[in-house]
Design goal:
Blueprint: H1 2-13, H2 34-43, H3 48-61, E1 82-86, H4 87-93, H5 99-103, E2 142-146, E3 149-150, E4 170-176, H6 181-184, E5 191-197, E6 203-213, E7 220-231, E8 236-247, E9 263-266, E10 279-282, E11 285-287, E12 295-301, E13 310-312, E14 318-320, E15 326-327, E16 331-333, E17 351-366, E18 369-385, E19 391-397, H7 401-407, E20 415-422, E21 431-451, E22 454-474, E23 476-477, H8 479-486, E24 488-490, E25 496-498, H9 499-503, H10 522-528, E26 529-530, E27 533-554, E28 557-575, E29 594-610, E30 613-624, E31 628-642, E32 645-656, H11 660-664, E33 668-675, E34 682-689, E35 698-709, E36 717-734, H12 737-745, H13 749-752, E37 755-757, E38 765-769, E39 771-791, E40 802-818, E41 838-848, E42 851-860, E43 863-864, E44 870-871, E45 885-886, E46 890-891, E47 894-906, E48 912-920, E49 948-956
Parallel strand pairs: 2-5, 34-38, 44-45
Antiparallel strand pairs: 1-4, 2-3, 4-5, 6-7, 6-49, 7-8, 8-17, 9-10, 11-16, 12-20, 13-14, 15-16, 17-18, 18-21, 19-20, 21-22, 22-27, 23-26, 24-25, 27-28, 28-29, 29-30, 30-31, 31-32, 32-35, 33-34, 35-36, 36-39, 37-38, 39-40, 40-41, 41-42, 42-47, 43-46, 47-48, 48-49
């Protein structure tokens, strides 16, 4: 601890790297229209004197850095593709009050984590965050920057929650699609997303908005304020912002598309020789082994299963279940399938509250030095309905008092016990409550000066951040108390009590009645349920230095060089009460404790080779305290033979080091399900994951080749096409339950040792899992980006305004995760585990000085439910655990249409006003439906809420 304290003290006095204001080179396909640039300048409403002073300050003091490069040359043509969302795009096209929802519409992002799809992300404490995922390689392999610097992580996995950024000050979002570890270090395997703030903003602006779904739920609202001013003759500048956002949760699913649709079941007619598929998709279907008031799944005695199918309704009424035309031990097609509530009593959208504060102070202490300090604070809370309690094998002995009362002694004469499945509708739903606060403090400096007779730039910064999380699950069953409360008998007085209370009257046990709805006592519910929690703290210290210069020139032009270094230290600590570490149906939290540090140095150069031809190269040396030394590099170049076309290419070696969670996770469990290959049934699983301190860095080889075409004969038009290929070796992944079961079925005993019966008896199986460097991931595809800016007067002389059309699409040709133990499957087009074949987004904006309207079309292509299935109806091959046959495997794609309207006006010269309305999913199109129980829809690429409306006002002085 003393060493760590000294290190921290040293780092706070060590002023380190900052990229300052980031002004990227943008090829024409991504360039902001001139009208937008003028509007941006006009917004600050400076006096002529202030504008002149600000311009002088920018020219003399502000460090210019290209996103994707450390070289301070805004005229360099980057060999790495960069896509940009401008301030105008953000204002006119954001579907919600959360910037991440707009960024995630870009086709380069696939499989990002959002509040919508992170309901059960408990083991990493990341439920509720917005974490960007480039190329579907995982959010941990996509680096997020704020003004070119690393920003505060929000989880122990190192993910940055976009919610924590001061969104009202973001003037541009740059997305680098290509490996960038040589420039930025670990995590930039898939690319970099850089959020650029308007740090010289002068004025005051206020935003307020509110939204609702077409069904009257999902109500949300937000308000934000930001202001900036100069002082001391504009040598100093102060920037402040704050925002608050709220969204009502939707804790049950009433959408018609989720009403017990198709299910995957084993084909009852399948034999090894008849050529029929092993699985079939049928509907309407529902769960039959766990009902709101309980159902008897089996009974033992002189006649086995004599009581099977009896289910209990309101007040304990006794009924006989109709298993329908087809059924398995878990699913019924037809019959009483509608009785199941596990698809209704589940959360569709979390409730959330989040608050942000941000402040920045800068001062020009000399012509070559500007010092600054930044502080940011974020507080958020996300509440989910994790679904009903789910027990499929509650054992009741024949003398159970509630069972005797329900069925009568005569019905139980030849019965030893029964097994009951229930979703326990009398109990409250399992509520997930994730609270998080993130603090970040940055001190730095930057400036420009003369070196080698040319302008040079330096920057430095030191940053400390701390993230504290409180993860709690309410209404979780304690397995020991469940066992005691379930064993209910009558005492000598005829009262129903726990059997354990007969010998220990003071044990506090309250008997529980599983047979019916409206029958459980509040005492029994309070006795068996608890609220496990975990507190975690994650600290990060980052510091670094940057120097960009032009040391010499060749006959073709100036040679640019950037050098620098960085130091990063990360630590995690946590606390879980002993009572909450084991013995619960879900949760069983363990605290994660550990840390590591990394030292890095890099060099980058830009060398002109001939007119229109340039070379770019970078190298970085990195030393991890946990895994040792690695080297990353990047080479690339651009060639512009004529003004109309630019060719670009890069090849890079990138790394990602294991994060603290992967190294030191204390152990966290989750409940899931698997298809049992021995009997074709669905088993419930309690899965426990722990860390692995022996992990080493992942290594990736990335290639990007493309071109940008800006034909002079079509003014305002540009198109870029880039092919990418990424091969990741030693990928850190783990086998999850289904993989482990499949491997065991194939006869691999090392996997069988990880599988056993659930010792608590509340699930069918207990499976242990940990991450290893065993996988290889290969992905490739094509990015297309086209835009056209057309002043309307060019075609209609009397019509003003500008039409801007922008189309982007990514075609994923290949995505293969190869474990080396099972057959590698190309999951491109697999809706459950891979990126869609196509992700696209098109927008068209018509703007006038006082009005603008934007139309957006976006979606994904149709694909398969799972590429591991072999679709066939006859002549099917024999069963294979890796490639089982199924009669229907196709799923539809999505097509969503959005509209955005903005009206601008002035009110008595007080200031500029904008009134806006956004309509998302105008046609109220359904999500991608999948043949699953619970939430039967894809939650990553789909609109679950349906049509939504958001309106508001913006005001600026």
């Amino acid at each position: 601890m003393m060493t760590y304290a000294k290190k921290r003290s040293f780092l706070f006095f060590f002023v380190a790297l900052s990229s300052g204001t980031v002004v990227p080179f943008m090829d024409a396909a991504h360039a902001e229209p001139i009208a937008d640039a003028q509007a941006t300048k006009a917004k600050n409403k400076q006096t002529k004197a202030e504008a002149k002073a600000a311009a002088k300050k920018t020219a003399n003091n502000e460090v210019v850095t290209v996103t994707g490069s450390r070289i301070a040359n805004p005229h360099a043509k980057s060999p790495t593709p960069v896509s940009t969302l401008t301030q105008r795009d953000i204002a006119n096209q954001s579907p919600t009050n959360n910037l991440a929802d707009l960024v995630n519409q870009l086709p380069q992002f696939a499989g990002s984590q959002t509040p919508q799809n992170s309901r059960l992300a408990l083991s990493t404490g990341s439920a509720g965050i917005n974490a960007l995922n480039l190329r579907n390689l995982g959010a941990v392999r996509s680096l997020v920057l704020l003004d070119g610097r690393r920003t505060a992580p929000s989880t122990i996995t190192g993910l940055v929650d976009i919610n924590t950024l001061p969104q009202q000050l973001v003037k541009r979002v740059d997305v680098v699609t290509g490996g960038a570890s040589a420039q930025y270090g670990s995590d930039a395997v898939a690319g970099v997303t850089n959020f650029v703030l308007d740090k010289t903003y002068t004025g005051l602006k206020v935003n307020a908005d509110s939204g609702i779904s077409t069904y009257g739920d999902g109500v949300n609202y937000s308000t934000a304020i930001a202001g900036g001013f100069g002082f001391a003759h504009n040598k100093g500048h102060v920037l402040l912002s704050g925002d608050y956002a709220h969204e009502d949760g939707i804790y049950s699913v009433t959408r018609k598309w989720n009403e017990n649709g198709n299910r995957i079941i084993r084909n009852p007619d399948y034999t090894t020789s008849n050529g029929q598929p092993y699985y079939i998709v049928r509907g309407p279907g529902g769960t039959n082994n766990a009902l709101p008031g309980g159902i008897i799944n089996s009974s033992t005695g002189s006649v086995a299963n004599s009581l099977k199918g009896i289910y209990f309704g309101q007040g304990g009424s006794v009924n006989q279940y109709n298993y329908g035309s087809l059924s398995t031990t878990t699913t019924s097609i037809g019959g009483d399938y509608k009785l199941a509530d596990n698809g209704r009593n589940i959360g569709l959208s979390p409730g959330s509250d989040r608050k942000n504060l941000y402040g920045r102070l800068s001062y020009d202490v000399a012509s070559w030095m500007t010092l600054y300090a930044e502080g940011a604070y974020n507080q958020s809370e996300y509440i989910y309905n994790a679904g009903p309690q789910y027990l499929s094998a509650i054992k009741l002995t024949s003398d159970n008092a509630y069972l005797v009362d329900a069925l009568g002694a005569d019905a139980l004469k030849n019965v030893s016990s029964v097994s009951v499945g229930t979703t326990a509708s009398d109990m409250p739903y399992r509520k997930i409550d994730n609270r998080r606060n993130v603090q970040r403090y940055t001190f730095g400096g930057e400036g420009n000066f003369q070196m080698f007779g040319k302008r040079a730039s330096w920057s430095a910064y030191a940053q400390y951040s701390a993230t504290r999380t409180h993860e709690q699950i309410y209404n979780v069953m304690n397995t020991s108390k469940i066992s005691k409360a379930t064993d209910a008998v009558r005492n000598s007085s005829g009262n129903i009590v726990c059997r354990s209370s007969l010998t220990d009257p003071g044990n506090g046990c309250s008997p529980i009645n599983w047979l019916g709805t409206g029958v459980m006592s509040s005492d029994s519910i309070n006795y068996v349920l608890g609220n496990p929690y975990r507190d975690q703290k994650f600290e990060e210290i980052v510091s670094g230095v940057n120097l960009s210069m032009t040391p010499f020139a060749t006959w073709a032009g100036d040679v640019s060089v950037a050098v620098g270094g960085e130091y990063r230290d990360e630590r995690a600590s946590g606390y879980v009460p002993t009572d909450y570490q084991s013995g619960w149906s879900v949760g069983n939290f363990r605290a994660t404790n550990g840390g590591y540090n990394v030292k890095e140095a890099y060099i980058e150069t830009e060398v002109p080779l001939a007119k229109g031809l340039a070379f770019n190269g970078a190298a970085r040396a990195t030393d991890y305290s946990t895994s040792g030394y690695v080297t990353t590099w990047k080479v690339g170049g651009t060639w512009q033979p004529i003004k109309d076309i630019l060719f670009r290419a890069t090849q890079s070696r990138d790394v990602r080091a294991p994060n603290i969670n992967e190294l030191y996770q204390g152990g966290t469990s989750r409940t899931t399900s698997v298809l049992n290959p021995w009997n074709g049934e669905t088993d419930t699983v309690l899965e426990m994951t722990t860390g692995n301190a022996k992990l080493k860095p992942e290594k990736a080889n990335s290639t990007v080749v493309g071109s940008v075409i800006t034909p002079r004969f079509i003014p305002g038009f540009s198109i870029s096409v880039d092919w990418f290929h990424i091969k990741l070796d030693d990928a850190i992944q783990q086998f999850y339950s289904q993989d482990i079961v499949n491997q065991c079925y194939e006869g691999k005993q090392s996997f069988c040792s990880a599988v056993g019966k659930d010792p608590t008896g509340t699930r069918d199986l207990y499976i242990q899992a940990s991450p290893f460097n065993f996988s290889k991931i290969t992905t490739s595809g094509i990015d297309i980006d086209a835009s056209y800016v057309l002043p309307m007067r060019h075609i209609l002389p009397k019509v003003g305004g500008t039409l801007i059309v922008h189309g982007q699409a990514s075609n994923y040709l290949k995505y293969v995760a190869d474990s080396g133990l099972s057959p590698a499957i190309n999951t491109a087009g697999d809706i459950t585990s891979g990126p869609p074949k196509w992700i696209y987004r098109f927008s068209a904006t018509y703007s006038l000085p006082s009005f603008s309207v934007t139309a957006i079309a976006r979606g994904i292509s149709a694909g398969n439910y799972s590429n591991s299935y072999v679709q066939c109806t006859s002549g099917c091959p024999a069963y294979n655990a890796y490639f089982p046959t199924i009669d229907r495997n196709k799923v539809k794609g999505t097509f969503y249409f959005d509209m955005n309207f903005t009206y601008k006006f002035k009110y008595q010269d007080v200031g500029n006003f904008q009134v806006f309305l956004n309509v998302t999913n105008l046609a109220n199109s359904k999500p991608v439906l999948v043949p699953e129980s619970g939430l039967a829809a894809d939650s990553t690429y789909s609109s679950l809420l349906g049509r939504t409306f958001r309106g508001g006002i913006r005001f600026e002085l």
